[in-house]
Amino acid sequence: MTDIGTPAAAMPPARGMKRSGAAALVVGHCAGLVDLVALPVWVGALISRFGFGPREAGALVTLFLIGAVVASVLTARNFTRLPRKALAVMGFALAALAFLLASQQSAFLPLALLHVLGGLANGMALSLVHGSMGRAANPHRLFAYAGIGLGLFGVIYMGLVPQLMLQHGGTVLFFSFGAIMALASLAALLAFPDVGGRSVDVAPRSPLAPGVLAVVVGVSLMTFNQAMVFSFVEVIGSTRGFAPQAIVGTLIALGLVNFVGPAPLAALLEKRIAAGSVVIAGPMVQAVLALVITFATVFTIWAPVAAVFVAVQVFTHTFAFGLLSKMDTSGRTAAATPAMLMIGSALGPIIGGALIEGFSIEALGLMAVVVAALSVASFARGIRANR
């Protein structure tokens, strides 16, 4: 990922994006980041509905995310040279096909292959979405609107899919993913925006500035923390003896919080709080919440904290996205957003599963503190280098 940046002056931000184009990007953002919404349902279904252990379930999700990371890095490197609309349509369509095929499988190996293929296709499409967002006139605000859309999507998903799974079984999980990806493909076909800058001669590759790379690492570490803990929220609640409906209610509340809280607040506070302050504080707050989620045994303490856990990542990353888009206006670093997010998410579930099986639930919280410290250090270095 060391050659996706370009000098900020090489490509000024695109202007005049139509609302339909922005809406298509928001839909693609929601579909491409389905893991941020569905991780606990995904891992929980693989364990309870398909009979896999925590490590195998975490490995399947990790394979999807690794595929997305690889595709994102390759796509981001060539963002200005690609036919973005055509590839976004194709990527989401192939991801839909992979998940629909997965709904007909129950063995680990075919599911593993389809998770990799789905991740590759999804990662390519999502990189094109995020790179186009980074080329908008106000990337921070557009990313905040996308966060609002993701919050609404989370409310609908958590309110609908777990209930359907109770009635119709685990295949509903993959059918839902396939339908979401198909919708994103259709939205891209109808309205994917032309943000300019596509040329084999424009914005030649150059190494990332040290500050950019440090911020990228900080985002990745923070995402790792979220994935490691959030993947097992349902499992933690069940282990603590909380009622299944109470856990589902907590996940619905989480979606509601994400819808009404972090993204609208990030849009409102864009000019009022320095992005540097937000990205330093974000990992610290995340670590404290992770400790409560993994150590609390009383539902009235556990549930409110679990419900706001993801909001910290959404709020912080909105500011980080705006910061990176200003540091590199070509859109290439923004196009690497899926890699930043999913390299952490790819490692989180499998390492979280190993910690639970090898040690305890509480080990997740202790690991989160260590990772948060590294994330803060990375953000601090990036901010210093950008001054």
TrEMBL record:
Residue ranges that the Swiss-Prot or TrEMBL entry lists as coiled coil: none
InterPro entries (alphabetical): MFS, MFS_trans_sf
Name this polypeptide is given: Major Facilitator Superfamily protein
A Pfam family it matches: MFS_1
Keywords: Membrane, Transmembrane, Transmembrane helix
Biological classification of the source: Bacteria, Pseudomonadati, Pseudomonadota, Alphaproteobacteria, Rhodobacterales
GO molecular function, one term: transmembrane transporter activity
Transmembrane segments: 21-45, 57-74, 86-102, 108-130, 142-160, 172-192, 212-236, 242-261, 273-295, 301-324, 336-355, 361-380
Superkingdom of origin: Bacteria
